[in-house]
Amino acid sequence: MHYAQHLEIQDKQLLKTLSYVNGQWLDSDKKVSVINPANGCEIAKVSNLGDHETAIAIKYAKAAWPIWSLKPAHERAQLLRAWFNLMMEHQDDLACLLTKEQGKPLNEAKGEIAYGASYIEWFAEEGKRVYGDIIPAPSDEKRLIVLKEPVGVVTAITPWNFPNAMIARKAAAALAAGCTFVVRPAIQTPLSALAMAELADRAGIPAGVFNVIVGDDAPSMGKVLTQHPEVAKFTFTGSTEIGKKLIAQCATTVKKVSMELGGDAPFIVFDDADVEAAVQGAIQSKYRNAGQTCVCTNRIYVQQNILQEFTDKYLLAVKELTIGNGMEEGVTIGPLISAEAVSKVDKLVKDSIDMGATLLVGGQVDKAGGNFYQPTVLSEVTNDMPIVQNEIFGPISPIIAFDSEEDAILMANDTEYGLAAYFYARDIGRVWRVAAKLAYGMIGINEGIISNAAAPFGGVKQSGNGREGSKYGLDDYLETKYLCMGGLTS
Ligand code: SIN
């Protein structure tokens, strides 16, 4: 079947179904289906590789490393810039592939392509600013010098919720620093990754520098990516549960790791907040990608004396969301990734109601299809409910009332996660107090959308380590080498 004909993309060469290793497209006898979560239809069959081919990809990445790492930074920058330009030129096609395999509304998918590309643009520039240091020495016959060097081969496992941007954010930093890169994309969404490989190839990024290996045997491929002796660094975006296992595997060869793991983002609305703005911020941060991001609001705390006002306005805004196939005009909420995701979300909602929460809107699978869950709001939620303690990854808003600033902070910090938090307040003293006390890596203050290429993305506690994006994002791909030069006096 000519799948590309059905995909409504202009540049049919962007539909790739083979893995990309050392600048070649690698086939296999075994295939895996890519399914559109909006309607259950097969979009493509992709070659299904495994641990053996993963090791081969690492070998080629290692072989490509010496030349890539020694290339002047501005030459690497030009190649990254060409990749960025191609991604933006093909934004519509890439977004179409993304919506079909992942489900998010087409406009959001276009946004993700621009977001992913912005990391490539950012690191193309930032790679030119990998400075070292000269440290005042303890005696005048010595000089102490610090160099920054690329770590070597980087391997990555990336998630299905941002099939383009999570690869771009990692690969751009790695390549800009002078590392080579092997990624295993989520098996649900390989087409976006392979289209990125096609564009990397067209941009002239040399063979072996950027490799994409697709396969459904996550545990055995994961073992190679985390334990292969030629790999210097491993990076992962996904759940805390899997992240812990991968960190343990990396320990066997003491790899450098960076982990962008789960979140349980609180969204706090204080009584001095601009309530309209808080409602808009909460909608943006909660319902982006149907609630399937690590930084999505997971629980909304509202000060008791504005609870009614906030809830009324929030409900009106939620009722304006339009659920449906992401390819249709005007849709703002697409499907969840799978039937299991829907069951998990539905159970959290039902359990909350059994424990005393009140359902204000939604609360069931939508008529649009089995993977569509209605935007849902629950009130009278308490902090001990599983919906508050677990990452929901779905379009559910649990609302919890609080009395004092201290109570809100206590409840917000009462979690093993520490990725993103949000709060709305106008009192400047409160703003600084609360920002200091929230134990999170990223805090949106009167703002629901915090992610951008110039900012450091990452969490504390069990939400992970390392930072992606920003000037700090290169650090994870660099080693610090210290030179102590002696014998300088005659
Ligand atoms: C994520 O959900 O892991 C990424 C979200 C973002 O980059 O904003």
Quick overview:
By secondary structure, the chain is α/β, with parallel strands linked by helices.
Main features:
20 strands; Aldehyde Dehydrogenase, Chain A, domain 1; 490 residues; alpha/beta
Tally of separate domains: 2
Q: How widely separated are the two ends? A: 78 Å
CATH superfamily of the largest domain: Aldehyde Dehydrogenase, Chain A, domain 1
Physical arrangement of strands within the biggest beta sheet: 14-15-16-13-12-17-18
* Strand segment tally: 20
Structural class: alpha/beta
What proportion strand?
A: 15-25%
The best one-word shape is: globular
Mean pLDDT over the full residue set: 97
CATH architecture name of the largest domain: 3-Layer(aba) Sandwich
Layout of secondary structure:
Elements: H1 3-6, E1 19-21, E2 24-26, E3 31-35, E4 42-47, H2 51-70, H3 73-89, H4 91-102, H5 106-126, E5 133-135, E6 143-150, E7 153-157, H6 165-177, E8 180-184, H7 190-203, E9 210-212, H8 218-227, E10 231-237, H9 240-251, E11 256-260, E12 265-269, H10 275-287, E13 297-303, H11 307-319, H12 339-354, E14 358-361, E15 376-379, H13 386-389, E16 396-402, H14 405-413, E17 420-424, H15 428-437, E18 442-445, E19 464-465, E20 478-485
Parallel strand pairs: 7-8, 7-10, 8-9, 10-11, 12-13, 12-17, 13-16, 15-16, 17-18
Antiparallel strand pairs: 1-2, 3-4, 5-6, 6-20, 11-19, 14-15
Helix pairs in contact: 2-8, 3-5, 3-6, 3-7, 4-5, 4-7, 5-6, 8-9, 10-11
What does this structure look like?
The protein is of the alpha/beta class and 490 residues long. The chain is built from 15 helices and 20 strands. It has helices at residues 3-6, 51-70, 73-89, 91-102, 106-126, 165-177, 190-203, 218-227, 240-251, 275-287, 307-319, 339-354, 386-389, 405-413, 428-437; strands spanning 19-21, 24-26, 31-35, 42-47, 133-135, 143-150, 153-157, 180-184, 210-212, 231-237, 256-260, 265-269, 297-303, 358-361, 376-379, 396-402, 420-424, 442-445, 464-465, 478-485. α4 crosses α5 (106-126). The chain binds succinic acid.
